[in-house]
Amino acid sequence: MNIVMIGSGYVGLVSGVCFADFGHQVTCVDKDESKIVALKAGRIPIYEPGLQELVAKNVRDGRLSFTTDLAGPVGEADAVFIAVGTPSRRGDGHADLSYVYAAAREIARAVKGFTVVVDKSTVPVGTGDEVERIIREESPKADVCVCSNPEFLREGAAISDFKRPDRIVVGTTDERARAVMNEIYRPLFLNTSPMIFTDRRTAELIKYAANAFLAMKITFINEVADLCEKLGADVQQVARGIGADNRIGAKFLHAGPGYGGSCFPKDTLALVKTAQDHDSPMRLIETTVAVNDQRKRAMARKIVRAAGGDIHGKTVAVLGLTFKPNTDDMREAPSLSIIQGLVDAGARVRAYDPEGTEQARPLLEGVTFCRNPYEAAEGACAVAIVTEWDQFRALDLARLREAMAEAVLVDLRNIYEPEEVTRHGFTYTSIGRGSGMAGV
Ligand SMILES: NC(=O)c1ccc[n+]([C@@H]2O[C@H](COP(=O)([O-])OP(=O)(O)OC[C@H]3O[C@@H](n4cnc5c(N)ncnc54)[C@H](O)[C@@H]3O)[C@@H](O)[C@H]2O)c1
Questions:
Q1: What's the whole-model pTM score?
Q2: Which pLDDT does position 25 carry in this prediction?
Q3: How far apart are the CA of 102 and the centre of ligand 1, in A?
Q4: Would you call 82 helix, strand, or coil by DSSP?
């Protein structure tokens, strides 16, 4: 198949290179010239494990190319994927669809012959209808079919998620489009990833319902963690105890500082807005959004309390800035609210992140960025682990303590066993492990 990917960000680039790796001919388009220049020179504008090698291999084999010119490749394509951003619209929280609609207009002017236009961006129900309307308005004779194919990959594990998905959802009732989508994904369903064909609106809703459910699951265990702290119970054990039940499942039951990232915050908000607009409010998700927003700032207060209650003029070290490990993505990262809370409480913040520093720097004015955890810990009254990068799981605790002014470790990801840390003379605070920590 001849495939064009419009938008070469996290989703577009990963999907594009994986399709090329299946053997398809793929052109990745982006209107950001600096991204395309970098990609053509073999530089990957994002951090995603394994991506660099896979891009290099498929470029070398002649199946993958990059361009800012949308018209040429779209004219040759069997399928054109829209993988542009759909951020929260400033002011009201609805999804901003301007990039999707702009892409639809450009596609309409360039298509030749039967082409399947596939929306991979996360978009509210009805967006596919509007994309189709725009294309018909711009180019009434165009032979296109618009379908929905939401993406479920996770940053940090994007390639394996794309190549081994739990399911592939395709929203179309058109037989020709179905045949093209079957052909594109054939290598995957041969590997037994189920294809779920449905109508377009249902496919669009599946993506939002999935993200909202996962965000709710995280928020649920976070509230259980708070209760554990009051009751002297252990949230890790509770998560294990309930997660062993297949009806619940063990994933997304890790208590922490609240969800962030490029998807959950904006998608939960967009679903809430859609539901309200259709007089079918989703109160569970409204509450999830509110609880999660408050939680991030509450984590700053937790650190302040752990450090003795007054951190004016003191230094706090923050380890991990990205919203999760193995990505450089800083969108809606909990570290942003937490650091703001610490600065508001009068602290100086020294921070270290293995991959996110470049993205974080413009977002965190006044923060001192360090080259490793020990440099960040220098003179600190507390070290807070905010993102669970693997390298923080095996810190040299003696060396860390040596560097610090006071031995306080706040582990917002529960990556340490309390005894292991306290043995090194630290005061240790984690999430939802109540024994000995009630009220912390
Ligand atoms: N990031 C994730 O983990 C993830 C997972 C699943 C779904 N999604 C969804 O996928 C979509 C894309 O997300 P992302 O994280 O890849 O975004 P991103 O911001 O990393 O990438 C979007 C790219 O599209 C480009 N673009 C915008 N308009 C364009 C146009 N008209 N022509 C060409 N290029 C254009 C931008 O320059 C940018 O490079 C969003 O709807 C998101 O919700 C993201």
A1: 0.94
A2: 98
A3: 13
A4: strand
